[in-house]
Each structure stands twice: as C-alpha cells, then as structure tokens.
Amino acid sequence: MRQFLNETQESLLMAVEQIRSNRVRSFLTALGVIIGIVSITMMGTAISGIDAGFEKSLSMLGYDVIYVQKGSWGNMGQWWRFRNRPDLKTGYAEQINRIIADNPDAMLEVAVPQMSTYSGSATYKDRSLLQVFSMGTTADYLRTASGDLSEGRFFLRHEAASAAMVCVIGDDIASGLFPNESAIGKQIRLKNQKLRVIGVFRKQGKFLGLFSFDNQIIMPLDSFRKVYGNSMFVTIRIKIQEKVSVAEAREEIRGIMRRIRRLPPTRDDDFSINEQQAFKSQLDPIKNGIAIAGIFITGMSLFVGAIGIMNITFVSVKERTREIGIRKALGAKRKTILMQFLIESVSICLLGGAVGLATAVAITFGVEKLLPDFPVRFSFPLMMISLLISVLTGIVSGLAPAVTASRLDPADSLRYE
User: Fold this and answer.
1) Given a cut of 60, is residue 76 above it in pLDDT?
2) C-alpha to C-alpha distance for 365 and 371, rounded to whole angstroms
3) Cα–Cα distance for residue pair 160/223, rounded to 1 Å
4) What span, in angstroms and rounded, lies between the C-alpha atoms of 371 and 33?
5) What global pTM score does this model have?
6) CA distances from 101 to 97, 105, 110, 178 (A)
7) What is the Cα–Cα distance from 73 to 335, expressed in whole angstroms?
8) Nearby residues of 270 by Cβ (< 8 Å), 6 or more positions away
C-alpha cells in the first residue's frame, strides 16, 4: 500500500511538472474539456434555477387551491374551443359553499369568487401607473392565497357587504404611487372612482417571470363592479382540505359544478378546472429541450477534448520514450508507467474541469447581478458531477497512450532517438 501511495505521489508530481513546463499546450489541450464542463454546468444551473423559480411561483398560486374558469390552462393555444361556453357567475362560489356546509365529508374547505381585469390604471395626485391588475373578491380571499401584509390590513366582511371603496395594493403599486410616504389612508383613483388604501402586501415577485403579484389592487367584489362593471373575467378559487389529493378534490368540484349548471350526463363540461399540474406539464418540454441541447454541446466538446488529450499524450509518450526506458531499466513496473500517464491525462482534464467550473460560477454570478429575476441555481452536487465527468474523460482519453507506454520494451526505448 505504501509503495502504491509513493508511486501515485511521484506520478502526480511528474504530472504537475509536465503541465507546468508545457502551460500553453496543456491549456489548449484542456480547452475542449473546459467548454464541455461550462456547458453541462450551465445546463444544470439553468434547469435547477427553472425548477426553483417554478416552485416559488407555484407557491404563490397555492398548492391546495383549484381554479374553476371558462378556459383551460392546459390548452391555452386552443382558446376557440372555450369561447362559446357560458360565462361563470360569482354566485357559484356561494352555492359551492352551501354544498360544502351541507356535506360533512366534503373534501373542499371554501370557495371564493374573483373578478379581474388588466386594463385599469391607478392614479394618485400627479403619479400614475398603467395596466395594473385589479381584482374584486370577498373577505375570504386570503384563505385561498399566499402573501403577507407589510402594512395595514385586508378588508373585512362588513366592508365587502357594504361595497366600501377600500383596497389592498401590491408592493410595486405602493412604491410607484407613494415612493416616500406610507400608502395607508391615501385615496387612489381607478377610472372615475376613488378607493382608500387600507393595506399593502409584502413584496412577492413574479409568477414564472411574467405576471407580477406586486402589481395588483384588490378590493371588495361589489366595489370592483362599481369601478369596472359586471362583465369582467370570473374565477372561482376553491381551497381543498388538508391531506386531500388534488385529483379527488377535482372530481368533487367537477360534480358540484355540473350540478350547479344542471348538465345532463350526455353533455360535456362547459367549464374548466385548473390546477398547477397544467403548468408543470408545459414546463417539462422546455426543460427537456435545455437538457438535450446541453448534453449535445457537452458531448461534442468532451469528445473533441478527449481526442486532443489522447493525441497530446501519445506525443508525450514519444517524446519521453528514453525516459520510460531508463525507468524500466531501473525496475519500474508496467503498472507504474501506466499510472503515470493516466494521472497526467486526468490531471489535465481536472485542470480543465476546474477552469470550466470557475467560468460557470462567474457566468452565474453575472447573470444573478444583471438579471435578478432570471432563475439560476449553482449546486454542490452539480460541481461534483462536473469533476467526475472530468476524471472519466481523463481516464478514457489517456488509457490508450498509457497502455502503449507501459508495453514499451526497455532496450528499444533506450535506443530511441
């Protein structure tokens, strides 16, 4: 064992000396490995970042909330299929809640209506924000949504029942209209109506980098009707009970909605039940595309890099034939020579892997600074996988030259010029 360690240490020192004495050649040889490691690391970073950003976005929707709407999230490209469906009514939420109350075995907890529009603009004095997301709902809204209030409170049942002109705003609305003062108690104008701000949500971020939860104004349902009328898009948000599967709750909701709409068994549903799974199924092809592109680039780069390392190791064997002959004449075994050249090729690949990882870290850091909303995540397992790939590339590319060197005849090697 001690002899093996001594031979390994000696081979490692010789490999370091070879790399040091041929710096430029070693760097150029490792360039393919560097590109390959950067490719696979950035691919993993992008996929991990997408997963992390996606989970964060889904948590905003609520893992235990199902949405009943006219259209479907899973078939957004086929809107024409849903265009002729009858509109949903906000009163459905009240009917669903009555059915839930009458059924002690119900898997549902509460239904909350929501009317919304993206066409409004909010104004305070001489400041104005365009295309804010306005929503009308009930006092139970927070039971179906994530998000804490940084200031003030949400509106109460009596305020919703009396159509009080109050609202709760997102962080971007607050910072845009009230940059140097508290928004609580101030009156903002939506169209021709004034609403008093009674609460401000803590900053939440964007859903899938698209829709911002910080750009919303939430008010009582009847107050919303005063501002925008009664023909806006309706959603019924339904929270399911704890430890109930979404699939089971989905079927219960489907039965309730068919009952409310009095659909005979022969007719298809004229509503859609949406959940997070629709987004997950749409995200998978994107992740698979990134993975395929990354694996292809990585494979090509590592193949080219391995060929280069194999070639330069063969050259090294030729250049050091007399040295090999002398070592064998002094008693060096075949496995010692084999190990020496393998360690040299692995060392070059590890050097390339380290440079590739450093480059990937620098790119990730730059992306985080320049595009804070773009999801990237550099992980320790990904770093270990990259280094393991570097070692395997070194072994594969250095094996043939190392075997050739180990089989050289000592006498012929000593006569080699």
Assistant:
1) no
2) 10
3) 8
4) 28
5) 0.66
6) 6, 10, 9, 43
7) 62
8) 85, 86, 261, 263
Is the torsion defined by CA of 330, 333, 339, 342 positive or negative? Answer: positive
Q: Tally Cβ neighbours within 10 Å of residue 294.
A: 19
Q: For residue 86, what is the DSSP state?
A: P
Query: Per residue in 44-70, pLDDT tens?
Result: 887 777 777 777 767 666 678 899 998
**118 secondary structure, DSSP code:** E
Backbone angles phi, psi at 237, to 5 degrees: -90, 130
Look-up of token digits 């000396």: 17
CB-count exposure of residue 331 (10 Å: 0-12, 13-18, 19+):
exposed
Determine the residue type at 251.
Answer: E
Give the pair of three-digit tokens for residue 10.
Answer: 């000696």
Confidence of residue 416 (pLDDT cuts 50, 70, 90): low
Strand 127-137 vs strand 216-220: parallel, antiparallel, or unpaired?
parallel
Indicate if the alpha-carbon torsion angle 39, 45, 49, 52 is positive or negative. positive
- pLDDT digits 0-9 by tens, 265-322: 888 888 889 887 766 666 777 777 777 877 887 788 788 888 888 888 888 888 888 8
Q: How far apart are CA 14 and CA 3, in angstroms?
A: 16
Q: How far is Cα 254 from Cα 231, in angstroms, rounded to an integer?
A: 24
Size of the chain in residues: 417
Instruction: Give phi and psi for 135, each to the nearest 5.
Output: -140, 135
